[in-house]
Amino acid sequence: MTNDILYSFRRCPYAIRARWALLICEIKVEIREIDLKNKPLDFINKSKTKTVPILIKKNNEVIEESLEIILWAISESKNENIKLIYFPESNKEDIFQMINENDNEFKYHLDRFKYATRYQNSNEEFHFRKANKIIKRWNNLLEGNKYFFGNNPTIADWSIWPFVRQFKIACESQKRTNYLEHSIKTWLDSFENNIKFSSLMYKYELWTPNSRKNYFPSN
């Protein structure tokens, strides 16, 4: 194996944040885009969670969680300043607390708002209000700051923006208005308008065992 392998799904926010970390840390991997409704056997055999992203290291060790992939990317980066900038020691506890809030409370309400029909007795409006309450709290943290912890993004920003983007997409599809206040909208725009965004969201062909190798980033 010449490169680490990332199994990914283009629109999955967990996969997006893992790919973002790899981009920023300048780590090139072989990427295998899969269909979550028709998962390849190779992926099923390698993954305990059966969901993306997973990273297969060159030594065949498997990293199953997107946050663990982010931390791995930081540790593997050849840029000595990466860790100091994006994962500062002084903010570690608060960073993990924010990511935990996103991955548990916000994601819970986001899913039941965005995919209300998938959940029995789910109250779409209730879950929208709960998700929006968290969004407003994050907006307040961004008042006067470009990112959650100042003028530089941290892995908290990396980990959360794909989910806020998903919230925005859900609101747009339902023709809702005024769902993002100015500060958090500007914050999200800084990622969606980033020069690296097109590389992040490049559309790869679905992987099969007979596919030619594709690499991320693609250039």
CATH architecture of the largest domain: Up-down Bundle
Element-level helix/strand string: EHEHEEHHHHHHHE
Estimate the strand proportion.
5-15%
Might you state the CATH topology name of the largest domain? Answer: Glutathione S-transferase Yfyf (Class Pi), Chain A, domain 2
- Arithmetic mean pLDDT: 95
Largest sheet: 5 strands, mixed
* DSSP E strands, number: 5
Through-space gap between termini: 20 Å
Rg over CA atoms, rounded to whole Å, is: 18 Å
Low-confidence stretches: none
CATH class value of the largest domain: Mainly Alpha
Number of domains: 2
The 3D shape can be described as globular
Number of helices: 9
Helix content class: 40-55%
Strand order of the largest sheet: 4-3-1-2-5
Q: What would you call the structural class?
A: alpha+beta
Give a quick set of tags describing it.
2 domains; five-stranded mixed beta sheet; 50% helix; Glutaredoxin; alpha+beta; Glutathione S-transferase Yfyf (Class Pi), Chain A, domain 2; 219 residues; 5 strands
